[in-house]
Amino acid sequence: MSHAEQLEWERSAGRPAGVAAIASALLGMIALVVANSTVRGGADDEAESIVQAHKHLDSLVLGGVLSALSMALMAPLLLYLFRATKYRRAELPEVARYLALAGPLLFAAGLVAQSFAIRDAVERTFERFPLPPKAAKDAANDAFTTGAVADWSLVLLGVGLVVGAATILISLNARRAGLLSSFMGITGVIVGVLIVVPFVGRPPIVYFFWAAALGLLYLGRWPGQRGRGPAWESGEPDPWPTTAELRAEQDAERLGRTPERAEPEPEPDDGDGDYEDAAPGAQHPRSKKRKRKRRR
Description:
- The chain has 12 helices and no strands.
- It has helices at residues 3-39, 46-55, 57-72, 74-88, 95-126, 133-145, 147-176, 182-196, 205-218, 231-234, 243-254, 285-295.
- Mean pLDDT is 81; it is low at 259-296.
């Protein structure tokens, strides 16, 4: 593509990519609410969680499907950012494109499969109830940590490495290309790490806020007077302005002037004609000698 064609493509493709990013965030948050309010709500221990899950088997699967849709929509989110970054920064590895496509889709399939595996495990375990407290607790632990549930957890761990690598690679290079601010670039790295190590769920909660922010960025609705970084308009790897630079510009505009760098005043010529060849602002060597003589 020519330079103009690339920028036109980014403007047109940014709309569906932005909608996909915001939809991904919304679906993920809805899935989190469904899982917490209907499946685990009121469960005091592992055995009680089996009882609660059995009451809401359909909601359990629904939460998994919604999470899968959220992850599937991560593919267009990453692919759009990859293409915009690759145009400005050739150092971005081409493999990131394939990781960004395959990783989220495989992860989504794994989430759906795992939700059905959990449903089957809950049904089989519930059929054995009532059990003594110790036996009920052991049965509940086995339901969530063995068999197909454990197998799919390992699969998701492996696929998470693919998604995490794509997210980290693209976020870092997009930041260096000026398409993401430092905060957004670092947040993308954190998202990539948390996808691999699911301390706060899959997808991680921080992903929802990052995806929503990217959606606003793609749609050209980035908050602030300056909007998104200049690299989006120029098509060049222009750095995203720092907070200090934006504050300096705002202060200069408020004072009705543009910030200028102070230039040192040149030393007056000493009459021998040699100083004219010196760089502006530099002091003639012989003038330093004369000053030292005067001090003596």
